[in-house]
Amino acid sequence: MVGKNCFAIASDRRLGVQLQTIATDFQRISKIHDRLFLGLSGLATDAQNLRLVFRHKLYQLREERDMKPETFANLVSAILYEKRFGPYFYQPVIAGLGDEDKPFICTMDSIGAK
């Protein structure tokens, strides 16, 4: 959800296999930095294998600044597209505040198409 100079992202906390609930405290929303969040939708193990928080920290070390939401969306899209012939079963939702507090929200399919 996007508003004037703000955004909201929400999800459930269920982790399940087929019709069986494994846990009810699974964290589906990751804080990348203070102005950027990533929502998980899809297979939990694929979401953990992407290591997107780790990739952002590498960017921070190299560039000495936080990644913009648009740049992060392009990174996620490229990572998903690399595996297009054996795709991750994962559809990310990226929400953040860009320059001048302009809200940004983006979602992708499993091969990285925005």
TrEMBL record:
Protein name: Proteasome subunit beta type 3
InterPro entries the UniProt entry points to: Ntn_hydrolases_N, Proteasome_sua/b, Proteasome_suB-type
Alphabetized PANTHER family for the sequence: METALLOPROTEASE TLDD (PTHR32194), PROTEASOME SUBUNIT BETA TYPE-3 (PTHR32194:SF10)
Protein species of origin: Gossypium anomalum
Annotated GO CC locations: cytoplasm; proteasome core complex
SUPFAM superfamilies in UniProt: N-terminal nucleophile aminohydrolases (Ntn hydrolases)
Domain of life per record: Eukaryota
GO BP terms: proteolysis involved in protein catabolic process
